[in-house]
Amino acid sequence: MKKWVLSRRDSAEIIQKIEAALKVDLKLPKSAQADCAEPGDGVVFVALDGLVFVQAGEKFVPFLGSQEALGLFPGAMVDEGAIKFLVNGADVMRPGIRSFDDWGEAGRVVVVREEKKGRAIAIGVAQVPSAEAKGMTKGSCLKNLHHVGDRYWELHKAV
Questions:
Q1: With contact defined as beta carbons under 8 Å apart, do 43 and 32 qualify?
Q2: CB-count burial class (<10 Å; 0-12, 13-18, 19+) for 21
Q3: What is the pLDDT of residues 39-89, one digit of tens each?
Q4: Which of 57, 49, 67, 50 is CA-nearest to residue 17?
Q5: Is this structure's pTM higher than 0.90?
Q6: In this structure, what is the dihedral angle of CA atoms 98, 90, 120, 57, given to the nearest 10 degrees?
Q7: Rounded to an integer, what is the distance from CA 90 to the centroid of its chain?
């Protein structure tokens, strides 16, 4: 496993890439430096002042274990029946969603939480605008990008 710290200039570049890819403002100071770890499989974990993101190629996803990072994104609550499907990689279907924040347009990253305790169990990307999702009764709303027990979850154990 490789670990390294990026220079301030390279850290600023990766912050810009993350903000552009995920359409979010990280609100980090200019002095923030990125700590990176590559446990293998071409996956890099980027830590920035308590925020942890997964980089696979040019794609960035907030890591489920980073509560600070998850707080930057809108959420969706799912019922208990949906949990077993989501942790096996299934997309989030409209009937399983109990409530959700307004995420705006399609393509936005959304944190999927279980209804009972509010724990994050998956990260999805909106396939439809939230206004359209409100009127749906069936179909897929969020594409599952990262979930508890997936390869990112297992690789992070080595970090």
A1: no
A2: middle
A3: 988 999 999 999 999 999 999 999 999 999 999 999 999 999 999 999 999
A4: 57
A5: yes
A6: -140
A7: 15
Helix (H) or strand (E) holding 144: strand 140-147
Amino acid at 66: S
Residue type, 44: V
**pLDDT digits over 101-134, tens only?**
999 999 999 999 999 999 999 999 999 999 999 9
Tokens of 14: 């990766």
Neighbours of 155 (CB within 10 A): 19
Tokens of 90: 């299934």
d(CA 107, CA 73): 12
Domains and CATH numbers, the chain: 2-67 (3.10.450.120), 70-153 (2.30.130.10)
Nearest-angstrom CA–CA distance, 122 and 93 = 13
